[in-house]
């Protein structure tokens, strides 16, 4: 192993290593970050949500967007898979359907970066238990 | 390189390991491999999460799902459901004991709500056997900054300003201790880490060394730089094998990266660490005894002064700090003395780790800000008393501490308030007792410990504690008089005032505090020959209540000495001359037909 020879060396090494535990530190405070949920049930995976998931994880990193990408179960929109839910900090979540890699790119650039809604939104037409209380 | 989008953190502390968390870890890895997910999901063995009551713990990131009481066989379901389908395994979630609701995120649990984790910051977050993870979590940055940007005087000033006090029990200001050691001249100086954790029930030092060993090493280097020492020694008890193993790995990794050894980070400063093993004597937690033990002498204390700072290990200036104290230090330099001193009370800054044990729902390791009340610790974090029984007392400070009662529940916990209330902080053991605990027996238990652990050097401790124990035994047998109670109190005072070291000076505390707070109970034993809590065997007897007995024979079948007679569907009777008062009949009876009288 090469030795760390100065404080600057140490800081550089830390920057290189930070991604190893960044996920753990980030997920402790999800509120201030972009949260993306990719539906990864059988229907989603069959329609290619796995690729979308990987793409989202990689691209967020590459484009320096502070986001948490998680997988979730079936949202019920099996006809529109792959579906993803995007929640910008402090906003209501928005669900997009028929998300392929091109669409994902558009969502990242337009919606996540600039807050512009793009085509393909599925209106959420059900209530969840929490909201019903 | 694998890019993980999910992390599974498996607790690998001694507690969870005892419940097979190491097998669980292997199973999770195997299962992920079978499903082809080994490059997407990372399984990490971390230090203790603190919630030992519900171990083994698995925390899944990024959705922060906190699984409790996970068994090795659950690995398949976690991978199939959570990793593949993104669905939580509901049956493994924590259920709140009060409102019966399932909580998936640890942040929502009462156990974690009031905690601030500073010393335990990396426990349950990083892999203690991988230095890269410690470096990623700001590891060794404080050390680097102190060595390149500060003079030793400036660095000591930060320590003084932070207000950090020794966490091993004494509560001496750490910065002042360093300042004294830095000013003493000596050809060779030493930094010693006291990892001889001896209080019954306390395990914070072990958990820190198991979960975040590098934080202690980093702080020791800083300490060495400040006082001009280039050698560090860690005195750890040999009965902590996992902590020793992880410490050795950490030292090796730090040496390989040049974070220990010669010319650290190009600063020209040298420092290295050695491990010394203790044989597990309580008195060796006292710093002079600890130093003698390391020198190969008997582990016996000597009179102070001279303090170790003047003449310590091999007669050289030595600074001794406890594990938890060291674990706080890197963060103080990273976040600043001001940040640290804002937490806590006026004279006790920061947080304290407590080991919650006894008759409480959430047994475990917690870190709370100084100034929190006992009520918050016991009823909110601890989740209240087991089986809905009534709170009676809480013992803090181990064998050197005392019992606090209901009237102390709203006292803010800090070094000075605990002493004023007749107990002490000690190393942070907290044993909760309910209505079934006899306070005379509790003090007898601690005295038994002290008698065993007294090194025998000075007579007040060696003989006095033995006599104290005998008096207490007399009381629990119902053979004492009220005069004995007065003698008991006198003897406590003599031992406290005349013993050589901290062990003897504080050993009567459990007796004094119970005499103060539960004198009625002592009187009941002496005057009425009765144990109000029903636990002193010589003062109680088990009887069958005829109206309730249906003759099911459960008690008779379970009696280990066959002293219960009676035919089926007939009234049973207990032969008192043979009964050993084990309580098995009471436990087995479903009809409340056995009573303690």
Largest beta-sheet details of chain A: 5 strands, mixed
Strands of chain A, total number: 5
Task: Please state the average pLDDT score of chain A.
Answer: 83
**Secondary-structure class of chain A:** alpha+beta
- What does the oligomeric state look like here? heterodimer
The best one-word shape of chain B is globular
Q: Assign the CATH superfamily of the largest domain in chain B.
A: NADH-ubiquinone oxidoreductase 51kDa subunit
Q: Which residue ranges of chain B are poorly predicted, with pLDDT under 50 across at least 5 consecutive positions?
A: none
Q: Report the radius of gyration of chain B as a whole number of Å.
A: 26 Å
If strands are numbered along the chain, what order do they take across the biggest sheet of chain B? 12-11-15-13-14
In the residues of chain A, how many domains can be counted?
1
* Number of helices, counting only DSSP H or I runs of 4 residues or more of chain A: 5
Shape field of chain A: elongated
Count of β-strands of chain B: 19
Describe what this molecule looks like in 3D.
The complex is a heterodimer of chains A (133) and B (597). In chain A, helix 3 crosses helix 4. In chain A, a hairpin with a 6-residue loop joins strand 3 and strand 4. Chain A has one domain: Glutaredoxin, CATH 3.40.30.10. Helices cover 43% and strands 16% of the residues of chain A. Chain B has 597 residues and is of the alpha/beta class. Chain B has five domains: 105 residues, Glutaredoxin (3-Layer(aba) Sandwich); 210 residues, Rossmann fold; 84 residues, Ubiquitin-like (UB roll) (Roll), CATH 3.10.20; 89 residues, de novo design (two linked rop proteins); 56 residues, Alpha-Beta Plaits (2-Layer Sandwich), CATH 3.30.70. In chain B, helix 6 runs parallel beside helix 10, helix 6 crosses helix 13 and helix 7 runs antiparallel to helix 8. The longest helix of chain B has 18 residues. Chain B is globular and about 85 Å long. At the A-B interface, helix 1, helix 3 and strand 2 of A face strand 1, helix 5 and helix 6 of B.
């Amino acid at each position: 192993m090469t030795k760390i020879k100065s404080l600057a060396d140490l800081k550089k090494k830390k920057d290189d290593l930070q991604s190893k535990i960044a996920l753990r530190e980030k997920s402790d405070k999800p509120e201030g970050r972009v949260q993306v949920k990719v539906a990864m049930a059988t229907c989603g995976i069959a329609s290619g949500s796995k690729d979308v998931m990987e793409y989202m994880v990689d691209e967020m990193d590459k484009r320096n967007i502070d986001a948490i990408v998680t997988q979730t179960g079936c949202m019920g929109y099996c006809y529109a898979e792959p579906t993803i839910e995007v929640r910008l900090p402090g906003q209501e979540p928005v669900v997009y359907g028929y998300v392929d890699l091109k669409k994902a790119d558009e969502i990242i650039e337009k919606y996540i970066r600039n807050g512009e809604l793009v085509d393909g939104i599925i209106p959420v037409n059900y209530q969840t238990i929490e909201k019903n209380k | 390189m694998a890019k993980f989008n999910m992390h599974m953190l498996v607790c690998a502390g001694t507690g969870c390991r005892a419940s097979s968390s190491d097998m669980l870890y292997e199973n999770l890895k195997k299962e992920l491999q079978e499903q082809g997910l080994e490059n997407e999901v990372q399984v990490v063995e971390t230090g203790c999460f603190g919630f030992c009551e519900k171990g083994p713990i698995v925390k899944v990131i990024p959705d922060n799902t906190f699984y409790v009481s996970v068994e090795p066989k659950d690995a398949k379901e976690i991978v199939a459901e959570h990793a593949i389908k993104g669905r939580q395994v509901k049956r493994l979630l924590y259920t709140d004991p009060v409102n019966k609701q399932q909580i998936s995120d640890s942040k929502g649990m009462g156990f974690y709500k009031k905690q601030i984790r500073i010393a335990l910051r990396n426990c349950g977050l990083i892999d203690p056997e991988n230095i890269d993870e410690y470096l990623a979590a700001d590891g060794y940055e404080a050390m680097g900054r102190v060595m390149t940007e500060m003079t030793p005087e400036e660095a000591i000033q930060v320590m003084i300003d932070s207000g950090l006090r020794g966490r091993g029990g004494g509560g001496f200001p750490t910065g002042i201790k360093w300042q004294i050691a830095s000013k003493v001249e000596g050809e060779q100086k030493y930094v010693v880490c006291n990892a001889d954790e001896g209080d019954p029930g306390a395990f914070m030092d072990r958990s820190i060394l198991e979960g975040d060993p590098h934080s202690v090493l980093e702080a020791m280097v800083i300490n060495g730089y400040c006082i001009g020492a280039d050698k560090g020694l860690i005195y750890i008890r040999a009965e902590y094998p996992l902590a020793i193993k992880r410490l050795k790995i950490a030292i090796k990794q730090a040496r390989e990266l040049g974070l220990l050894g010669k010319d650290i980070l190009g600063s020209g400063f040298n420092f290295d660490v050695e491990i010394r093993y203790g044989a597990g004597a309580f008195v060796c937690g006292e710093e002079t005894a600890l130093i003698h033990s390391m020198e190969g002498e008997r582990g016996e204390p000597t009179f102070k002064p001279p303090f170790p700072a003047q003449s310590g290990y091999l007669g050289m200036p030595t600074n001794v700090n406890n594990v938890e104290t060291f674990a706080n230090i890197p963060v103080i330099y990273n976040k600043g003395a001001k940040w640290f001193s804002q937490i806590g009370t006026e004279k006790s800054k920061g947080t304290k780790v407590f080991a919650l044990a006894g008759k409480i729902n959430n047994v475990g390791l917690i870190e709370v800000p100084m100034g929190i009340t006992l009520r918050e610790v016991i009823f909110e974090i601890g989740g209240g008393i087991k089986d809905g029984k009534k709170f009676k007392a809480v013992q803090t400070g181990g064998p050197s501490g005392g019992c606090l009662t209901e009237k102390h529940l709203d006292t803010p916990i800090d070094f000075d308030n605990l002493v004023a209330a007749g107990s002490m902080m000690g190393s942070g053991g907290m044993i909760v007792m309910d209505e079934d605990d006899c306070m005379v027996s509790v003090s007898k238990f601690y005295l038994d410990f002290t008698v065993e652990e007294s090194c025998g050097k000075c007579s007040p401790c060696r003989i006095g504690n033995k006599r104290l124990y005998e008096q207490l035994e007399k009381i629990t047998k119902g053979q004492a008089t009220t005069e004995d109670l007065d003698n008991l109190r006198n003897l406590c005072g003599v031992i406290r005032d005349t013993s050589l070291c901290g062990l003897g000076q504080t050993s009567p505390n459990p007796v004094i505090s119970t005499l103060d707070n539960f004198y009625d109970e002592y009187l009941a034993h002496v005057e009425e020959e009765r144990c109000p809590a029903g636990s002193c065997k010589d003062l109680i007897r088990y009887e069958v209540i005829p109206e309730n007995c249906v003759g099911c024979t459960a008690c008779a079948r379970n009696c280990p000495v066959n002293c219960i007679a009676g035919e089926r569907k007939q009234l049973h009777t207990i032969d008192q001359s043979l009964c050993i008062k084990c309580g098995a009949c009471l436990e087995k009876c479903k009809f409340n037909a056995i009573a303690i009288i």
